[in-house]
Amino acid sequence: xxxxxxxxxxxxxxxxxxxxxxxxxxxxxxxxxxxxxxxxxxxxxxxxxxxxxxxxxxxxxxxxxxxxxxxxxxxxxxxxxxxxxxxxxxxxxxxxxxxxxxxxxxxxxxxxxxxxxxxxxxxxxxxxxxxxxxxxxxxxxxxxxxxxxxxxxxxxxxxxxxxxxxxxxxxxxxxxxxxxxxxxxxxxxxxxxxxxxxxxxxxxxxxxxxxxxxxxxxxxxxxxxxxxxxxxxxxxxxxxxxxxxxxxxxxxxxxxxxxxxxxxxxxxxxxxxxxxxxxxxxxxxxxxxxxxxxxxxxxxxxxxxxxxxxxxxxxxxxxxxxxxxxxxxxxxxxxxxxxxxxxxxxxxxxxxxxxxxxxxxxxxxxxxxxxxxxxxxxxxxxxxxxxxxxxxxxxxxxxxxxxxxxxxxxxxxxxxxxxxxxxxxxxxxxxxxxxxxxxxxxxxxxxxxxxxxxxxxxxxxxxxxxxxxxxxxxxxxxxxxxxxxxxxxxxxxxxxxxxxxxxxxxxxxxxxxxxxxxxxxxxxxxxxxxxxxxxx
Length: 536
Fold this sequence. Notes:
The chain is of the alpha+beta class. The chain contains 17 helices and 20 strands. Helix content is 30%, strand content 21%. It starts with a helix and ends with a strand.
């Protein structure tokens, strides 16, 4: 009891020479994000913006090794799969703590009850937390999880069994997706008893490296390092998402040191970033696609001849040169050529205005056609300048006698409009959640996803296409799945519900003092393990 005072006095006596009591300065990492998240709960997230915002706070049973699409253990330490591919048994990690906030202090560690709750909440319509004010469980539905799950139970506190209705090749990858993050069942119970159930999705509690502090729309999201994080406390004390919709403003902040990492630098800024000694440009081949969706439930776009004509009338080469200089390749199929299963035998539609006019005439369109064309205001890697793409399409389609009314909306409203089908033509895109063709072909174009709220925004439901992509999900044989996906892509090309535009590089700009950042092949901005050191 007497030693601490004497040691402190000794240290004070030597302070000038040895700095033995120098305080450690707290570190704040600022990420300039591109927009407001539609939610902070990963179960409700449908955009990369929201998934980025949720990622620091949550973990899944299995996760991707940072910078790869390789599955690794996370909240599940190990698992076994039955020979028929239908039964998964997960052994859970012990000693994992949940966050706390002003409303909740956990009394137990993470266990099987939390896994069962997190799946059942999305699955069962009679679950007390199934109804939400922040939207439905779009990913859960679009991935076919409601039909895939047969039973979820917990033999004991540290074991979870999941039985499927059929074999599902990408199931483990599906469990690594944001919507399958694990939430606290105890927190849900506390809020339910307090009559504050609505706070569950707006005041998030997870097991991740950072805890939620505050959210001011159009301004910031703030997080604090979680001291009891099971992988170890982060080197960063405070994490800030500075919401900055325009690319020019993000670059200005990055140069000024007001942010350390910046989302989605546009292609035209790449050379400037590379030439700045204070900055680093991280790049990766993007597993993405940008496209023009045609709402196939609205005449005349329910006519395949019209859709093919639009494909022939859009000058994709000019768009690629103007909007994706050196950072993209022309898209032919609805999935990128970097992904296995890509059909390289499909030839793109030629740019042929005369042929497009003939198709219009065959479809009975002999007079001018006026329709709305929507474009995203925020920068996305698959559409780094949505307005410019829309303007170029407007000029292209005017040659067919079409008049396009260009419209846009704030990102959350824009995404809601796309998923509700409230448009005729729209520029949209997708960044893969997993390294599997299923995530493009079934998730974006399957009949299940053509519902209101689904990710098949073209509302295109083709029976033959759907049978192929559903069958492909059920088998582990990659060669056979590749055959099925090749046939599905041929049907897509023939029926033309989209104009595929481009597959782009994924780019992230950062300051030199940022260390440990690894670019994510799936297009997210992962800040776990990132640190700040003195710039060289």
